[in-house]
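lol forgot to send this yesterday, sorry. struct tokens for the thing we talked abt
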């Protein structure tokens, strides 16, 4: 073993397909199975401890972090629910801003024929040097009209349009400055006076659950007792299971996570659907400034876990699962949309080529299948297999999450 200043060379193996044993005589212990291998050199090095036993690739996470921080992050949140449930107040409380300064509340006459519209507001937030481009997609008019059958169409069309725009930009030539405006999460507000999910709620979530991550929120939970909150959560979960509606599923913790993080993850899973109370008013209670709501009988502290799940929702949405929401949007929902687009493009191209062939052949009924057609057929079959795999993965995730679901008292 030859020793150097900073490391010791333990072994050198040289393989040559023409000459198994090199003239140096090093590595003569090769077996006959390696005769046909290409020329390779493997050097096993054990570095001595000291100042020079550092290669440098351990800084890769820091490089990725600096690049990501410099580029900034995008997150799009859609809020869906009828007027008066505190959607704007919750958004202002979550992100400590005021996105609805010039909001106009429609009167009863305007709500009779009011249709669901989409309003998009964007704000730049910076925290400890990290920049976030936050986009809030509001849906005023949802559930306000007498006939709410088509309330889901506007929301579904907006989500599809953002997928389509991203697919177009991704397929273009200049992809360096792409903006991700896809909807990463949909907060669906359920009124506290409902005994379970209503027909309009089920229809809306049934149309969206394969396109976006749905997080169910029970609004104005301070109007319910602890027993009523628990009972409503149970009924919502039963309705979702009965109608096979898949809301956002929390990922399982890695085995190497610390116990505190695992406990926090268990509490977040048990709290869903989140019963929240929101407020953008700061009150002084016992010498402390808190966000709360003043009532004749006392004050509700929105950040008190005994009063509301607001803190759990904020932790999940911003601190712990924001990146996972984006990953699920990219890996599951967008990939489903992308596979459908590619399949439709392939089928349209095949129909056009078949039409041209029929026109060129005239009365001849024979159709010649070219190599290009065979490749397209193979691609279509591959896309169908990918869709089946994604469906199976979603079912497995849903089945595994059912085993770990539990509910705690609020």
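and heres what i got for the seq, position by position
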């Amino acid at each position: 073993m030859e020793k150097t200043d900073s490391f010791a060379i333990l072994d050198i193996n040289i393989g040559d397909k023409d000459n198994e044993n090199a003239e140096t005589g090093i590595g003569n212990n090769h077996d006959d199975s390696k005769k046909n291998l290409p020329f390779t050199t493997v050097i096993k090095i054990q570095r001595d401890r000291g100042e020079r036993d550092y290669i440098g690739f351990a800084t890769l996470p820091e490089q990725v972090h600096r690049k990501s921080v410099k580029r900034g992050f995008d997150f799009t949140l859609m809020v869906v629910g009828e007027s008066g449930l505190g959607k704007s107040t919750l958004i202002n409380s979550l992100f400590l801003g005021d996105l609805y300064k010039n909001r106009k509340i429609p009167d009863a006459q305007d709500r009779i024929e009011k249709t669901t519209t989409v309003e998009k507001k964007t704000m730049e937030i910076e925290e400890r040097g990290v920049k976030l481009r936050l986009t809030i997609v509001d849906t005023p008019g949802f559930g306000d009209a007498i006939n709410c059958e088509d309330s889901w169409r506007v929301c579904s069309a907006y989500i599809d349009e953002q997928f389509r725009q991203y697919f177009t930009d991704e397929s273009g030539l200049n992809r360096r400055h792409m903006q991700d405006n896809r909807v990463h999460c949909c907060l669906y507000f359920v009124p506290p006076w409902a005994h379970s999910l209503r027909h309009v709620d089920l229809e809306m979530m049934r149309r969206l659950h394969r396109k976006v991550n749905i997080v169910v929120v029970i609004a104005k939970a301070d109007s319910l007792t602890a027993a009523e909150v628990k009972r409503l959560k149970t009924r919502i979960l039963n309705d979702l299971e009965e109608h096979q509606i898949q809301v956002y599923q929390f990922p399982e913790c890695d085995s190497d996570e610390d116990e505190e993080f695992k406990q926090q993850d268990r509490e977040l899973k048990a709290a869903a659907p989140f019963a929240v109370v929101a407020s953008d008013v700061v009150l002084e209670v016992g010498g402390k400034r808190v966000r709360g709501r003043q009532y004749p009988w006392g004050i509700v502290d929105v950040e008190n876990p005994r009063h509301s799940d607001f803190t759990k929702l904020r932790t999940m949405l911003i601190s712990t699962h924001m990146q996972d929401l984006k990953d699920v949007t990219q890996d599951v929902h967008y990939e489903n949309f992308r596979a459908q687009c590619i399949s439709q493009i392939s089928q349209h191209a095949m129909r056009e080529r078949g039409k041209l062939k029929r026109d060129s052949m005239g009365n001849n009924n024979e159709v010649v299948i070219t190599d290009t057609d065979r490749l397209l057929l193979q691609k279509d079959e591959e896309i169908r297999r990918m869709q089946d795999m994604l469906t199976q993965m979603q079912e497995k995730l849903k089945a595994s999450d059912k085993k770990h679901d539990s509910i705690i008292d609020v």
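Residues 70-329 form a domain with the Rossmann fold fold (CATH 3.40.50.300). anyway ping me if u want another try
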